[in-house]
Amino acid sequence: MIGPTKGPLLLAGKHMDGRKTLELLIVEDRQVMLKIMRRLLVQLGYAQIDEAANGLQALEKLSYKRYDLILSDWNMDGMSGFDLLKAMRLNPETQATPFVLVTAESKPENILAAKAAGATGYLVKPFKLDMLEKTLDHVLAANGFVNLAVA
């Protein structure tokens, strides 16, 4: 299990030192969006960020490294983020890893399907920094990380 087995993570202040130690994986096929996501995550204080261009590359990385959080696009060639999510939930090693779909897919049926498949968060593109921060804080808090930040 990722996250809670490391013990509670105490986050405090705007630039939360605890975020620096979390291992994140961004799964995104568009280079521009990948750079935007990385830049926003760095602004929020995350420092350990890996990248994969699709679900297949993500699964390869997951075979040798554990992540505290996955942020994945839905629509990608090779393997979609939705298929990656389903594959991760079937694997005992990754089934508890927090997973946020970051996508332009805003149809209610897609959001419901993502939740049914085990997504722990859903963020519709385009989004702003504060919405990304709120989503990630919520997902991490729900997965055993303690967030002491005061808004």
Description:
This protein has 151 residues and is α/β, with parallel strands linked by helices. The protein has five helices and seven strands; from the N terminus they run ββαβαβαβαβαβ. The strands form two sheets. It has a five-stranded parallel beta sheet with strand order 3-2-4-5-6, with helices on both faces. Helix 1 (31-43) links the parallel strand 2 and strand 3 (48-52). The protein is globular and about 30 Å long. Residues 1-16 and 147-151 have low confidence and may be disordered.
- End-to-end separation in angstroms reads 29 Å
User: What share of residues is helical?
Assistant: 25-40%
Our Rg estimate from Cα atoms comes to 14 Å
- Work out the number of β strands: 7
Tally of DSSP helical segments: 5
Features:
5-stranded parallel beta sheet; two-stranded parallel ribbon; Rossmann fold; 5 helices; 36% helix; 151 residues; alpha/beta
Write the layout of secondary structure elements.
Elements (H helix, E strand, L loop, with lengths): L9 E2 L11 E5 L3 H13 L4 E5 L2 H8 L6 E4 L8 H10 L8 E5 L4 H10 L3 E4 L4 H14 L3 E2 L4
Parallel strand pairs: 1-7, 2-3, 2-4, 4-5, 5-6
Helix pairs in contact: 2-3
Task: Describe what is shown at a glance.
The chain contains five helices and seven strands; from the N terminus they run E-E-H-E-H-E-H-E-H-E-H-E. It is an alpha/beta fold.
